[in-house]
Backbone:
């Protein structure tokens, strides 16, 4: 599979200021050393509890936030990437590497360079009623990205907006209406239409279904799948609703306090999760079947604060299988089987 | 088994500028003793409004225009809709209490956890607390002899005796307004604090003494919800209404809270009305399920029955829209209708895949198809 987007050691820290002169006293480690790669045309699921850094990761990879360190490679040709890896391994600091990184690493891009890239990467937010401007007509909401990007001339914009609206299942009538006139599901469709207007290849879906009802949720999920097939999109699907992720994504990464603890193909991770946190997470999904037997692991306590994460493995205070090693050393994400990565001391390949 | 609560033909309307919103159109429900009744439905179908009408907490433009809500109180069965405000106040939080969806909105940010929980005790169990305080005073009196302290204790004893005998005494109310003198209330608060820590411990809050002095914003979502549950269960209510108590929480915390509610239900022997839109949660917690659509109850059955054999097309649609791996998502077409101009006949008919001509003309009645399985649909 061809890698489409890759992050290497991505970090995003938010400074906490305090004391005299508002010095920086510590960091909120929202995303801490995350290396993931997404294949072309795949739907990549990212799950975790609230506050674990899912959304920050999603925003950082499309450079709505500037990463503290790490690299983001977006649609880099294969041979260039190979060269980068090769140069990085050869310990010497070469000028060529710097040059290549400057050219291909998103984390080093300036504003102007990013702007032209934005048409290829878009985001759909969680709550459409706050992500859509209440004083803009649907028409101008959808036309705005086209205007900013300068892709489509003025006289053709309306045509393009209509085409996109048709794709997300809205009619011409909704063009001259305001967002508040629509229901929650329809509003989310408008937000999707806005994201798809500049014809992107990569879309971050940040909990797109959590603010809508069950019956509408199914409609939206269908729409996402159709659009993916039709337009050849790559998704990063961020969600805390595991049952939705199970249905829509090809691969799933489980995040816990800024780190990836497990990464695997969807069917495998739901059938047989390996990391203790994933096991607990999967077992806490309510099953819509009253006769089903459950073997539920209930986690004690709350998610630790990312300001002061526990030493060693971040899950150790809540883990029922924690050993001494877990409290001292942070486990690395290792490949256990083909395509399955776990960060846990208990699991060895 | 008898019913602790019966709702008969409840009609609720909101008079707005845009027209009359027919929020509830003849809701019939009953809750048995010691059971958990799940109420499911989409946003705006009237789940929360049903719950709020039980407590007569409908927000202003709303008016209850008909029906009965019969509640089996401590002595006799009463119609909650016919009671005055003072009586309702004595019931809210004591016999019937409610857990709201958003714990951070349900708690007051400027009071500590202890103040908020002990408020319930001071409101509903004042006599009991006064009696306990009196016992403590008697003990103190024995340990001191005369002097100023003895005089103060004597004074306090007098007040508390009166409080036990005549809880609504005018002179006591007067005394509690005078500075310095009103310090006698401290003993009452002390007793309330003991109870508060007790109830916090029951809801599995670690280190309850410390948490009691915290403000809500210092707690995480799961802990806040536990505090809300503590407030709701403070007076051992006979009926607990849980209005989407876990919607704003994470799955792992949701599992904790669901477990807690289950455990406490057995301990307190309460009946629960569990309002939710998550069918997975319903399957795990409820004994019976009522499905609501656009202000009507469309189907009621035992939880096993309804998952095995859903009869109403809307219930079927809901069950099919649960995402299951390897299957396509089957969505219900269209959206929930406006409640100002609801469709005639059965309110589900414009979205119903099995609609017949009769559906748009006549409103179906609730019929018992099988034992304890009720459905309101012309097809059955």
Residues:
């Amino acid at each position: 599979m061809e890698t489409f987007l890759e992050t290497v050691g991505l970090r995003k820290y938010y400074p906490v200021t305090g004391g005299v002169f508002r010095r920086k006293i510590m960091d909120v480690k929202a995303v801490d050393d995350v290396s993931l790669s997404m294949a072309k045309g795949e739907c990549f699921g990212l799950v975790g509890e609230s506050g674990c850094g899912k959304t920050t990761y999603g925003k950082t990879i499309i450079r709505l936030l500037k990463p503290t360190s790490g690299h983001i490679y977006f649609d880099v040709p294969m041979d260039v990437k190979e060269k980068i890896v090769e140069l990085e391994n050869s310990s010497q600091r070469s000028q060529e590497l710097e040059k290549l990184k400057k050219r291909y690493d998103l984390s080093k891009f300036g504003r102007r360079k990013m702007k032209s890239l934005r048409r290829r990467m878009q985001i759909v937010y969680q709550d459409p009623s706050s992500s859509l401007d209440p004083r803009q007509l649907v028409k101008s909401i959808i036309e705005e990205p086209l205007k900013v990007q300068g892709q489509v001339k003025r006289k053709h914009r309306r045509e393009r907006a209509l085409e996109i609206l048709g794709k997300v299942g809205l009619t011409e009538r909704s063009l001259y209406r305001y967002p508040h006139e629509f229901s929650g599901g329809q509003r989310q469709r408008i937000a999707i239409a806005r994201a798809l207007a500049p014809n992107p290849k990569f879309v971050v879906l940040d909990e797109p279904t959590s603010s809508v009802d069950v019956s509408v949720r199914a409609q939206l999920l269908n729409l996402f799948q159709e659009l993916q097939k039709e337009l050849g999109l790559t998704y990063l699907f961020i969600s805390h609703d595991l049952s939705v992720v199970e249905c829509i994504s090809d691969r799933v990464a489980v995040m816990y306090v800024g780190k990836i603890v497990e990464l695997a193909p969807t069917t495998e991770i739901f059938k047989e999760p390996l990391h203790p946190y994933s096991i607990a997470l999967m077992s806490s999904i309510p099953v819509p079947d009253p006769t089903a037997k459950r073997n539920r692991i209930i986690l004690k306590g709350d998610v630790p604060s990312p300001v002061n994460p526990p030493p060693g493995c971040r899950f150790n205070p809540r883990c029922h299988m924690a050993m001494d090693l877990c409290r001292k050393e942070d486990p690395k994400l290792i490949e256990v089987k083909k395509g399955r990565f776990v960060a846990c001391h208990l699991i060895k390949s | 088994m008898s019913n602790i609560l019966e709702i008969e033909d409840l009609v609720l309307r909101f008079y707005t500028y845009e027209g009359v919103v027919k929020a509830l159109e003849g809701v019939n429900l009953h809750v048995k003793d010691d059971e958990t009744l799940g109420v499911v439905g989409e946003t705006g179908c009237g789940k929360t409004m049903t719950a709020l009408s039980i407590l007569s907490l409908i927000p202003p433009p709303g008016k209850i225009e008909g029906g009965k809500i019969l509640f089996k109180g401590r002595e006799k069965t009463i119609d909650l809709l016919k009671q005055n405000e003072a009586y309702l106040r004595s019931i809210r939080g004591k016999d019937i209490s409610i857990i709201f969806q958003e714990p951070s909105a349900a708690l007051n940010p400027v009071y500590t956890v202890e103040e908020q929980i002990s408020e319930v005790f001071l409101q509903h169990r004042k006599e009991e607390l006064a009696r306990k305080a009196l016992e403590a005073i008697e003990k103190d009196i024995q340990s001191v002899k005369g002097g100023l302290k003895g005089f103060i204790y004597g004074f306090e004893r007098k007040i508390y005796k009166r409080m036990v005998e005549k809880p609504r005494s005018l002179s006591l109310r007067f005394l509690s307004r005078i500075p310095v003198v009103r310090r006698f209330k401290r003993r009452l608060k002390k007793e309330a604090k003991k109870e508060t820590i007790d109830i916090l411990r029951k809801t599995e809050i670690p280190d309850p003494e410390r948490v009691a002095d915290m403000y809500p914003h210092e707690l995480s979502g799961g802990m806040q919800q536990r505090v809300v549950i503590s407030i709701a269960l403070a007076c051992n209510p006979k009926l607990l209404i849980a209005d989407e108590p876990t919607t704003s929480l994470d799955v792992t915390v949701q599992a904790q809270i669901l477990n807690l509610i289950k455990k406490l239900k057995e301990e307190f022997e309460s009946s629960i009305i569990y309002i939710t839109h998550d069918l997975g949660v319903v399957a795990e917690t409820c004994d019976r399920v009522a499905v609501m659509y656009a202000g009507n109850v469309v189907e009621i059955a035992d939880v096993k029955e309804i998952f095995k054999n859903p009869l109403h097309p809307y219930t079927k649609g809901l069950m099919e829209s649960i995402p299951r791996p390897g299957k396509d998502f089957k969505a219900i077409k269209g959206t929930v209708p406006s409640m100002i101009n609801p469709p005639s006949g059965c309110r589900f008919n414009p979205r119903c895949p099995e609609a017949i001509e009769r559906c748009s003309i006549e409103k179906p009645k609730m019929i018992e198809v099988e034992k304890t399985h009720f459905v309101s649909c012309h097809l059955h």
